[in-house]
């Protein structure tokens, strides 16, 4: 095929069958370094030309999975603000959270924060430790239900006490609806998060040098907080609940006129009406201001595949600075709300699978998309085994030697600890211990008393010598017993190949 007549002078025309190879050279090579759409187009346009060069460069870069995984997103936060509904009365809709890992004060190390989303009244309950679900139910009945009655809804994160079966059944029996925030999106429970910040600020102002008196400050912090005017409601929590202002100082003992009952109720209803109007107006203002700095979230359908941000995912890599910025792609299995989706995640990630759309990025598909499927398992002597690229670390777990392995065709999110008895990668194991002789398995491990550590069965916990397997490539890949990997691989990236 000859060059079109409109070809610019001093430019080389690229036939269609050669274009993808040229794009790979200028985008996906070490001298190029994945520079992006504009720089790739500029570099190619210095010497080469074809009629659809701009469109092809754009589609090729957008379909580049290395860029999708490794580059940080530079767009505004995705997803417009979704405000919680405005309550109609005090203590019907609550927010709850914990402040943990505090220095011990009178035997307490944890604070339970409970906030009424209508009046903004807060209670701070000191606890000796993070409670179990049963202990939380007792505290909640004693400190909240006893005083304010049973609420209609509780917003919280997905911490162990709140997400446990006991707590969910306990609230269901009382008719309380539980609303959980999505993974790594604390803005959903912002009322309690904001109260935690205010409480921590109060304690910093008055605590001792040893920081051991904070539990004694909680009643005063609660009093000061509930007696202050709230910017959203325009009233203090005390006036919103009781209809009057308590004295701010202990010396103010002037008697206050107490209105008649009907007048008092009328006054409270007027205060609540003003609070609802102020809250609705404030919510509208907050949404308008927040949406100026956000982008409309894309609408995903069940079955679509998306990349998941690693901002809050702990990968087994030496440094997160060089780790992929996104992992996946993973299939969407459910739309929870317009800005939250449930993903089909591998079980070994141990993450709650509902994520805000700001942590997701669509898998862009066009004619240049090349999804590389994971290497399938191989059959060795009737056993299904997976290929190992490298042994990364070793440890003794409950007396048994394990290796952290990187498998061929899988990302760092799929690295896992494998029992040494399942390994048949003797050459890679020896190479690892040659570089890390002090890691477990490099030399016979001993107990403090000098007795060699053994696995069940009495065999010393040293690296087993497996049968050699033919190497492939300079990495010298070998195989790994897959009997313990069936659950690990379930729902993995292999789904992205379909």
TrEMBL record:
Top-rank lineage group of the source organism: Eukaryota
Domain Integrase catalytic: 86-245
Sample GO molecular function, one term: DNA-directed DNA polymerase activity
Pfam families tied to this protein: Integrase_H2C2, rve, SH3_Tf2-1
Cell location: Nucleus
Gene Ontology cellular component list: nucleus
UniProt entry keywords in alphabetical sequence: Aspartyl protease, DNA integration, DNA recombination, DNA-binding, DNA-directed DNA polymerase, Hydrolase, Magnesium, Metal-binding, Nucleotidyltransferase, Protease, RNA-directed DNA polymerase, Transferase
Bias kind Low complexity: ranges: 448-462, 480-498
Chromo domain mapped to chain residues: 386-444
Residues covered by region (Disordered): 434-498
Cross-referenced SMART domains: CHROMO
Listed GO biological process terms: DNA integration; DNA recombination; proteolysis
SUPFAM superfamilies: Chromo domain-like, Ribonuclease H-like
Cited PANTHER family: INTEGRASE CATALYTIC DOMAIN-CONTAINING PROTEIN, PROTEIN CBG26694
Protein known as: Gypsy retrotransposon integrase-like protein 1
Organism: Leptobrachium leishanense (Leishan spiny toad)
